[in-house]
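*** Query protein ***
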Amino acid sequence: METLLSILVGVGLSAACGFRVFVPLLIMSIASMSGHLTLSGGFQWIGTLPALLAFAIATAVEIAGYYIPLVDHFLDIIASPAAVVAGIVVMASSVVGLSPFLRWSLAILAGGGIAGVFQAITGLTRVSSTATTAGLGNPILSTIEAAGATAFSVLSIAVPLVAMAAIAVLLGFVYWGRRGLLRHTRSRQ
């Protein structure tokens, strides 16, 4: 049961990496230092004071950068590969009770995959926001993304099953919304 819960924690934290790269790592560091999260072997460094300080600074810079026009575009460009890497790291560091081969396979496929999916969703949403509001809506979107990363990270550690349900609901909204948009576009042609 501990292994299954650790996988759920990893998936939730990986999804949060799709919103903001460093927020999940910061929350993991806090949770590890406070005894609320057990990290897998070789990743205990995440729960150290130097890592906490580094993640706090990186989080502050990342969040602030998304409120600056053009910087937010640059961050979107580098966030895609960074989110996938962060998703892999948070998944590998949170999964306990599996062999290294299975842990890393799961980290690459599930952790990197879900982080990439959520990063793609946020990237497309930002492009749409920029196109429809000339970038004026991007600070609101940035606030929602930062809050989403924080909420998914905390939920993933505190109540992993609720985090999985939230991820499923969000993916369902995206799927059905996209499907409705495609149907609407086809009917206009």
The two ends are 52 Å apart (CA to CA). The chain has one domain: 2-188. Residues 2-188 form one domain. The CA atoms of residues 21 and 83 lie 5 Å apart.
